[in-house]
Design a protein that fits this description.
Structural class of chain B: mainly alpha
Strand order of the largest sheet of chain B: 1-2
Number of helices of chain A: 11
Radius of gyration of chain B: 22 Å
Order of helices and strands of chain B: HHHHHHHHHHHHEEH
Number of strands of chain A: 14
Number of domains of chain A: 2
Number of helices of chain B: 13
Oligomer: heterodimer
Strand content of chain B: under 5%
Number of strands of chain B: 2
Shape of chain A: globular
Largest sheet of chain A: 6 strands, mixed
Shape of chain B: globular
Largest interface: A-B, 56 and 45 residues
CATH topology of the largest domain in chain A: Rossmann fold
Distance between the termini of chain A: 41 Å
Helix content of chain B: over 70%
């Protein structure tokens, strides 16, 4: 099967004199998670709506796996699961019925349908509510059901518009966990979010948009390096408290510029050399048996890059 | 989650099959909704009131013969029940997709908007038909009580015309529902049009302009009650009051009434679909 792809070609959306999206050209291809960042009104949701036929482009094309969404919607969206804004499901239906409707629309085989519905709801911890009507559900509960509907047909492309919106901290964490678990299954995930820490934690690449225009699209490491003078920052967690000896040992690893203590059991390591260096530092630390239990790009680095690129909040 | 990891064996079904899916689940939603319960209650209250009043007062206009019974009972109530069904189930069918955000759940799937529209139309039509059938059944029940199995053929015709009228009303309500994103506005405007404006225009056109109001749906729907009058009323009837005043009334031919309903159904359903196809979820 070909790599999943999502492509915008000179995609624009205008409402009268207001331009919501201006000549966006962007191609995402392959199994990865791409974060879509930008201030309120930048055009993130507009872009995702254009890829799901909720709105039509003023000009340009929205292609999914090379198929124009607006010319051949059924074909283009057959392998796409999406969650745009906060959908509502018919209130008198139960999650089982609402998801069965989507499963039938998407052509999930009858024999698998019920199993998939139950499994999807189990994934978002809504199995206890599977046969309760959704009219009285809270916003967070509905959002969980909608996340489940996105997973239902085992899509190769997942489009998510602020998927943790409306969820409590546990729900947010669970949804992030679901997205991370999806990454390892040959999927292309394109996810808008206001939460830089979320994007930093979940995504491999980032596209930033401002005033309807694409500002940057690259790996998180490259984007952050570009705005930190070629440097990157990773946050490393250890199973034991960090002491001066540990900091000294890490500072000597090739590529490391500095290591600063975070809380008792974590360090912020500044380094040069991009992704290759990021990998080799991790390998070195593991080889030195330092008790590393987590290793991820620092959200603050992405925040610095974001603030450098995006000047206004609206 | 093992089940989700199963390699997808999905094949997007045909549009016809998707219409059936939308119809099935939206009907389920209608059937369990408060509005269905309210309309069913109204249906039963109207029927119960008629049953009690006719049983108690035994009015001659109802009990003169079998035809007069069906004419008075069904001829007066059927269009009202039909209009209520159209408004209750069609009024916000499409506008609700925008206002209640249910469209964000269904539309971003591999399904044509036309399949959603047609599926919703059919489910609203079936739900309204159910209410309509209950009213007809109570009418027949009372008719059998008073006149035995002597059910006039004209009642059957009227029943069929009323059902066609329901299709035309539903087409119209779906058009207005597609026109607005606010459910209350679409329901209100449709209700005002059917309950007051159409009748008012029909009267004004007939009395002042003295032309046949062939372009008004409610005029065409007049065949529902006219067919229960034997012989069928004259197409043009003129009455003179004194020397100066003449009053002309029009009655649609059956073929004309059916044509008006058919044109309304086709035009409004198609226009509504076109609007929904172009409408954006902004």
């Amino acid at each position: 099967m070909a790599n999943p792809s999502v492509e915008a070609i000179n995609l624009s959306k205008r409402y009268g004199s207001f331009t919501a999206l201006s000549n966006l050209s962007l191609k995402l291809e392959g199994a990865k998670c791409v974060g879509f960042l930008g201030p309120n009104g930048a055009g993130k949701t507009t872009t995702l709506k254009l890829f799901t036929d909720l709105i039509r482009p003023s000009s340009g094309e929205a292609l999914i796996n090379g198929v124009n969404v607006h010319a051949q919607k059924k074909k283009a969206l057959e392998s796409v699961g999406s969650l745009i804004e906060t959908p509502e499901i018919y209130p008198a239906l139960t999650p089982r019925e609402g998801l069965s409707m989507i499963a039938e629309i998407r052509g999930v085989p009858r024999a698998e349908r019920n199993k998939r519905v139950e499994a999807s709801l189990q994934e978002v911890h809504m199995e206890e509510w599977i046969d309760k009507r959704m009219g009285k559900f809270s916003k967070g509960m509905k959002q969980r059901v909608c996340v489940a509907s996105t997973l239902l047909s085992n899509p190769t492309i997942v489009l998510l518009d602020e998927p943790t919106n409306g969820l409590d901290p546990r729900g947010m964490s669970e949804v992030r966990g679901i997205i991370k678990s999806l990454k390892g299954k040959s999927r292309l995930i394109f996810m808008s979010s206001h939460l830089l820490s979320e994007v930093s934690e979940v995504c491999d690449e980032v596209a930033m948009i401002d005033h309807g225009k694409l500002v940057v699209y690259d790996t998180i490491a490259n984007v952050t390096a570009r705005f930190l003078g070629g440097e990157n920052i990773v946050e490393v967690g250890f199973k034991q408290p960090v002491d001066a000896a540990l900091i000294r040992r890490i500072s000597k690893i090739q590529g490391v510029i500095s290591a600063e203590k975070g809380d008792d059991t974590s360090l912020r390591i500044r380094f040069t050399g991009g992704l290759a260096s990021q990998e080799s530092i991790l390998v070195s630390m593991v080889g030195m048996n330092l008790g590393v239990i987590s290793y991820k790009p620092a959200a603050s680095a992405l925040e610095d890059a974001y603030l450098s690129l995006i000047k206004d909040t609206v | 989650m093992d089940q989700i990891e199963i390699q997808s064996s999905n094949r997007v079904p045909t549009s016809l099959s998707q219409v059936r899916t939308i119809m099935k689940y939206t009907f389920l939603d209608y059937f369990r909704s408060r509005r269905f319960f309210i309309l069913l209650s109204l249906d039963l209250i109207i029927s119960a009131l008629l049953t009690v009043l006719v049983g108690y007062y035994r009015p001659q206009s109802f009990l003169f013969n079998s035809l007069s019974f069906y004419s008075s009972w069904w001829g007066n109530g059927a269009t009202f029940v039909t209009i209520l069904g159209g408004i209750f189930f069609g009024g916000d069918a499409i506008s609700g997709e925008f206002q209640n955000r249910t469209g964000y759940f269904g539309v971003p799937n591999p399904i044509r908007r036309s399949s959603i529209y047609i599926g919703k139309w059919l489910s609203a039509f079936i739900a309204a038909t159910l209410i309509f059938v209950i009213y007809a059944a109570i009418t027949v029940g009372n008719g059998i009580y008073y006149f035995g199995m002597n059910i006039p053929i004209e009642f059957g015709e009227s029943l069929l015309f009323a059902w066609f009228y329901l299709a035309a009303v539903m087409g119209f309500t779906f058009l207005f529902s597609s026109l607005f994103k606010n459910s209350s506005i679409s329901i209100l405007i449709t209700a005002i049009l059917f309950l007051f404006v159409f009748s008012l225009i029909e009267t004004l056109v007939t009395l002042l302009a003295k032309i046949e109001p062939w372009f008004i749906l409610t005029y065409g729907a007049g065949i529902i009650s006219s067919v229960l009058t034997v012989p069928y009323p004259e197409h043009v009837h003129t009455q003179t009051f004194g020397e100066q005043i003449t009053l002309t009334t029009y009655t649609a031919f059956i073929s004309e009434g059916l044509a008006i309903m058919a044109v309304y159904f086709i035009v409004t359903a198609a226009l509504g679909l076109l609007l929904f196809e172009r409408k954006e979820f902004t």
